[in-house]
Amino acid sequence: MKWQQIPLGALQTNCYLVENPDRTCLIFDPGGEGNKLIHLLQDRKLKPIAIILTHAHFDHIGAVNVVREAYKIPVYIHKQEEKWLGDPALNGSQLFMHVEPIRANPADHIIKNEGTMKIGDFEFDVFHTPGHSPGSVSCYFAKDGFVISGDALFQGSIGRTDLPGGNHDQLLKSIHDKLLTLPEETYVLSGHGAVTTIGEEMDSNPFLNGF
């Protein structure tokens, strides 16, 4: 199984494509520039089967409608943020003057519990990792050694907690209990910035001192 990082939109939010050898793929966090993403998928002859959202902030959902309509595929979101997709006040697009209000259509599937999720031939574990936002999730592909962490954990940093529903202590607990327990060689595919590893962040992330 392969993955590809694609920064999209004004904030260069990392969208991830996770693909199987048969060219089917999952799309994580299509944050903007939907047509650019569609052209890339076409060029690589990939066949998306679902969109998974690590959370519903505007910079992670900006291309949801365009991509979903192009491929007629379902969207997954955690239950605590299912109403955020269509509400610019909740998804944050209303809070920034330079951002057009974003109203994505409702998700097709609501993630209610942690555990193993199967979509087509893809299988991964879903962890609820709130703190950056109430419904943030991380998706762990154990066999392939990577976790898509959304905006929970970054290289040398952690997600901001000053937006609605953010909670600094809760975020640190999520990182400690759900992410830092993964094998140290696990690649962390963050919502912004470079790829890192669990071990790197345990050793050098200044926000995690004391863990």
UniProtKB/TrEMBL annotation:
InterPro entries reported for this sequence: MBL_Glyoxalase_II, Metallo-B-lactamas, RibonucZ/Hydroxyglut_hydro
Domain of life: Bacteria
Residue ranges constituting the Metallo-beta-lactamase domain according to the UniProt record: 12-192
Single annotated GO MF: hydrolase activity
SMART domains reported in the protein's UniProt record: Lactamase_B
Keywords: Hydrolase, Metal-binding, Zinc
Keyword Disulfide bond: no
A Pfam family the protein falls into: Lactamase_B
Cofactor: Zn(2+)
Gene3D superfamilies linked to this entry: Ribonuclease Z/Hydroxyacylglutathione hydrolase-like
Name of protein: Metallo beta-lactamase
Protein's organism: Neobacillus bataviensis LMG 21833
Lineage: Bacteria, Bacillati, Bacillota, Bacilli, Bacillales
